[in-house]
Every structure is written in C-alpha cells, then in structure tokens.
Design a protein that fits this description.
With 322 residues, the protein is of the alpha/beta class. The chain contains twelve helices and eleven strands.
Length: 322
C-alpha cells in the first residue's frame, strides 16, 4: 500500500508554524513528513526560508510517530558532506530512528550564497557522487574517514554519536545519471515527477525493491477560485521544469521567468479547490508510476490546518482506497 506524507515547506511558513503543522499532520494520520532545505523562497510571495535542520530537530521532539526526511539537502556547496553526515546522525538519534536523509544536486537559488559559483549539471552530479560516498562511510561508522577527491577532502573524520541503525539515504533523480547514482548508492529514490522510467532506470542500476518517494503540490480550498489564485501567486514557478529551476539564482529571477504564466496554465498542472477526485487523480499518477510513498504539499501558509482536517476526513481515505 502506498504511504502518504505531509510536507513542511520551509519557503512558505515560519519555523515555529511548520513544527505546529507537522504535529497536526501526525494526529491526522499522515504516514511521514518531508522538509525542504532552502536558503531562499522560490518567489517573494512565499516569504520564508527557515533553517531546515533546526526545524527537523524541533519536529523530532514535538512528534512521536511520523517519519521525517530532508527533501532534499544539497551537500556540495552550502554544506560540506562531512557536516551533513553529522547532522543526519544527530537527527537519527533525536527522532528515535524516524529520519531519512534525502540528498540532491541542488539549485543555484540556494547554493550561490556560498560564493563558490554554480557548476554545470555534469559537475554537480560528480560532486554529489563524491559527497554521497563520504556521507555513507561516515554514517556506516567508519573510523577514521580519510578522503581525497576531485571536489572534496576529508581528514580523519568520524561521527562520535551514531543512531542504533544507520540513517537511510535517499537520492533525488531526474535522468539517467542521477538514477544510476541512486540505484548504486541510495536506500530510497526521490523524485518530483511521476515518470515510470525513473523507477525503471533506478531498478536497472541496482535499486529494485527499494522505496521510491514522490512529491506533489496541491491547493485545497472550499473556494476553487481562491485556491487557484493562491497556487498562481505562490507556485507558478513549478511549471518551468527541472531543466530551468536549478539554474535561476534568486526569487526575482523566478518572478521574471514566470511573468506571463496564467492561472489557467497553473490549473492545468496543479489540482485546486475542494473536489477530492480532482486531487486524487493528480496524485494517482505517482501511484500508477510505481511510487511507494507520496508527499503532499498544501500551497498556502495559512491553509495548513484546514487542509489537514480535510485530508483526515476526505482525502486520505480516498487515497488509501487506491
């Protein structure tokens, strides 16, 4: 049976509100939660971008059952991979084994702040490969870890506090190279598009039988027009696609790139309003593509509590009937 999760979206809510919202999601019966790890929002209208790892630590203490996952952390510029491993191990302990580390090659939007330039896609994937090796070795308890790579060096590192069980690693995929890396190195495949071929490539590279987690944004509201307006205001960047999104450097760039996106174009991509079946049909695409878990993003900071209550009452039962 497919598991359904709740997204703590750092770009659209204050950190304390995110922790409160994930408590509501746990009480409502969501199976797991994922957390974006951004330095900036996509658009000014979203208006937030708290530090994901503090939020995750607070969420681990504020909840008891729900799984937690970074979705996803980029360990190649803003963070050094050895420090990412330390954070993940600490989260494994604080969460009582409920944490999974999601990793990806990142976006210019968040990584350029380190002042190291934004590498080409091929270089980013090479860097991610090195970073994953370092992180895996540290989380496995290797002592010491010495590493000399093309992009990273690690000198006599070890993790002094490790959870009882190794933190699972997820890797975000979008094409053959990332699927190969995930199939070879990841415990979990991560994606934001319901493309069956991603799972097939993941399987062919060694990932057969492992979980695959997808994510989809929706805009629930009793008023469909209000839902569509909110989705257009805050999520119109989504339609640019993942060949464009990683390259733009700041919210102003996303504002300019989406200047001519219409509400109707947003409605064609995102389900909006109160119709359960409309939302279920969009989410079903991930289930049909073989995803074992799907995390839902409810668009709008002030709409989380109504969404969670509606999801408990109507959406989750409908999804579980799939």
């Amino acid at each position: 049976m497919t598991a359904f999760g709740y997204t703590m979206m750092c770009e659209q809510s204050r950190p304390d509100q995110l922790v409160h919202d994930v408590q509501l999601a746990e009480q409502a019966g969501f199976d797991f939660s994922v957390t974006s790890d951004h330095y900036q929002p996509w658009l000014d209208e979203q208006g937030h971008s708290g530090y994901a790892w503090s939020i995750l630590g607070a969420a681990a203490q504020a909840t008891e059952r729900i799984g937690l996952m970074s979705y996803v952390t980029c360990p190649i510029l803003r963070y050094h991979p050895a420090v990412v491993a330390q954070r993940a191990a600490t989260m494994g302990i604080l969460s009582g084994g409920r944490f999974r580390l999601g990793l990806g090659a990142g976006e210019n939007l968040n990584e350029h702040v380190a002042g190291k330039g934004w590498p080409t896609a091929g270089v980013r994937h090479e860097m991610l490969g090195e970073a994953v090796e370092v992180i895996r070795r540290l989380l496995a308890g290797e002592d010491p870890v010495n590493f000399r790579g093309r992009y990273f060096d690690v000198e006599s590192a070890r993790l002094w506090d490790l959870p009882d069980e190794r933190v699972p690693i997820g890797i975000a995929v979008s094409g053959p190279e990332s699927c190969r890396l995930a199939g070879e190195q990841a415990d979990v495949m991560v994606a934001t598009e319901p493309r069956r071929e991603l799972g097939e490539l993941f399987d062919a590279a060694g990932g057969a039988g492992r979980p695959r987690v997808g994510q989809i944004a929706i805009a629930y509201d009793p008023d469909r027009d209000a839902a569509l307006q909110r989705a257009h205001e805050q999520f119109r960047w989504f339609g640019l696609g993942w060949r464009v999104n990683p390259e733009l450097p700041n919210p102003a760039s996303f504002e300019e790139a989406t200047r001519f996106v219409t509400p109707q174009q947003v409605a064609e991509q995102l389900s909006c309003g109160p119709d359960v079946e409309e939302h279920v049909e969009k989410i079903r695409a991930f289930v049909d593509a073989g995803f074992t878990e799907v995390a839902l993003v409810q668009i709008g900071a002030d709409q989380q509590a109504p969404f969670v209550a509606w999801a408990e009452r109507e959406l989750l039962p409908a999804l579980r009937s799939l």
